[in-house]
């Protein structure tokens, strides 16, 4: 895990990044700015239980490509999940919390993931572990109203004008952040290269 100092605010931006693209970079930059983060951990996962491993580029390649996009020195590209021996987000977040008790974390996800968030293993545990920032993505803006997660945790939603306080709040707490959106998608990029 990247080095942190006591009391820091850190965003956790996980995904397969297969391949990473400018849209991921935009989400990371918006999160850094709007959430007032000291760091953002760009967590390249070894695999995604909801996606086929057949189409997954090698981890080293996805890390190298992510490093080319994540140019901000406050963004730390990492693949520490590989050493944990599993790829379920709930367990990863539990390990992060165990090893960093005095750090304020926020889970960051694109709105395109919000609609299927309830399919993730222990999704309600994830929502109760760290606050969540959902960053707008094309075609997914209404997910913050209609998704099962949004409905289940409606009481814990904070206004995006208060996003800079999210890391200091007790989970469950979440916000939806509107802003510039990129039409780039890993799925479309993979389809073009085939």
Automatic annotation (TrEMBL):
It is an enzyme of class 2 (transferase). SUPFAM superfamilies: Nucleotidylyl transferase (SSF52374). Keywords: ATP-binding, NAD, Nucleotide-binding, Nucleotidyltransferase, Pyridine nucleotide biosynthesis, Transferase. It catalyses: nicotinate beta-D-ribonucleotide + ATP + H(+) = deamido-NAD(+) + diphosphate. Residues 12-192 form the Cytidyltransferase-like domain. One of its GO terms (molecular function) is ATP binding. The keyword Chloroplast does not apply. Its EC number is 2.7.7.18. One of its GO terms (biological process) is NAD+ biosynthetic process. Pathway: Cofactor biosynthesis; NAD(+) biosynthesis; deamido-NAD(+) from nicotinate D-ribonucleotide: step 1/1. The keyword Nucleotidyltransferase applies. PANTHER family: NICOTINATE-NUCLEOTIDE ADENYLYLTRANSFERASE-RELATED, PHOSPHOPANTETHEINE ADENYLYLTRANSFERASE. NCBIfam families: nicotinate (nicotinamide) nucleotide adenylyltransferase, PRK00071.2-2, PRK00071.2-4. Catalyzes the reversible adenylation of nicotinate mononucleotide (NaMN) to nicotinic acid adenine dinucleotide (NaAD). Belongs to the NadD family. HAMAP family: NaMN_adenylyltr. This is Probable nicotinate-nucleotide adenylyltransferase. It comes from Pararhizobium antarcticum. The gene is nadD.
């Amino acid at each position: 895990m990247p080095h942190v100092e006591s009391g820091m605010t850190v965003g956790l931006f996980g995904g397969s990044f297969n391949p990473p693209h400018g849209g991921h970079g935009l989400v990371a930059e918006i999160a850094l700015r709007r959430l007032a983060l000291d760091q953002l951990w760009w967590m390249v996962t070894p695999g995604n239980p909801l996606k086929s491993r057949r189409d997954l580029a090698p981890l080293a390649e996805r890390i190298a490509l992510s490093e080319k996009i994540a140019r901000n020195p406050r963004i730390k590209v990492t693949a520490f999940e590989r050493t944990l021996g599993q790829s379920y987000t709930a367990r990863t977040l539990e390990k992060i919390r165990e090893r960093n008790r005095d750090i304020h974390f926020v889970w960051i996800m694109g709105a395109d993931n919000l609609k299927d968030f309830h399919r993730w293993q222990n999704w309600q545990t994830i929502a109760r572990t760290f606050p969540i920032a959902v960053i707008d993505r094309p075609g997914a803006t209404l997910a913050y109203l209609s998704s099962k997660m949004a409905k289940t945790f409606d009481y814990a939603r904070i206004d995006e004008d208060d996003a800079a306080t999210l890391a200091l709040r007790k989970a469950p707490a979440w916000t939806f952040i509107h802003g510039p959106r990129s039409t780039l998608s890993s799925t479309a990029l993979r389809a073009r290269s085939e």
